[in-house]
Predict the 3D structure of the following.
Amino acid sequence: MRLLLLCTLSLTTLLSVSCSKKNKEEKLCGDAYGESPRIALQPYLNPQWDPTGNLVAFNHIPVSKLITNTCGLPYFGGKADSAGLYLIKKDGTGFTRVTDRPLEDPKWSPDGKWLAYNRLGEIWLLPFNGTTFDTAAKRKITPTGQNATYAWSPDSDSLYYLNTNTNSVNATFPGKFYRVAVDGSGVTMVGDGAYYFWVTSDRIYFNQVRDIFSTKKDGSDKQQHTTGSDYKYFVSVHNGVIYFESNMSSLWSVNPGNSPVQLDEGVHTYDVSSTGEIVYGKFRVNTDEINAQNGTLWLMSADGSNKRQLTFNHHQ
């Protein structure tokens, strides 16, 4: 499994590592942690568009330095006291910190009223009034258990989620799909699950083995939409186009019946707006440079054109 998965799942644990006041570059061989939080992939992660396509929420740990480990890949050192969920407008203004720690797997509801996130295997909702989040009114909506990935229903009245705390876990289906209303009621099992999936008005799209399939919500009419040897992750569907990341850290799109098109390389998490614009984290893993571009958020059109940088690293 690619390195990204481990780093995404452990993002909220990074703050437990001690932080140094030093900012100089260091050579650390065989040191498990170093002297600052280790941002193993990128300072900006999990970007999510609001429904208007003008505002992006994302996890961020500001960079303080580069830690060069001669026994492995270089790491960014982060400013733990500035980590959290942030907002930025599409034009690059309005850079604002919302929470005092990153939120695992945040997802904005299609109506813009909620930001969902995963916390210790439970799905929580954070209310949004169009301007600010009400952090005091956050609430858990799923039963206690090993609830993993999830997706919003198109009308924002419920979420579908994967529960791996079942007796059906096997190599093909890792658990069961469940549906729950935004008030936490009506928990209903839908069927066999998958780690990455997307829900439309009439179908559920999901990865299975190395490809992407879909079925009707009752499990019938199974269709295969991709072929190939690469694993497919972070599946989403917008205006009939399927998007996914490959295990080669590339972002792809595919119109059903056509061949996939590579949109960019070095992509780690992305989201597609209601207007078809893509925001994504771009990071060159095998680099020993710390600069204003590496590990930042970028924007591009749905066809991969018009790429431009949205966020920057600032460090001493």
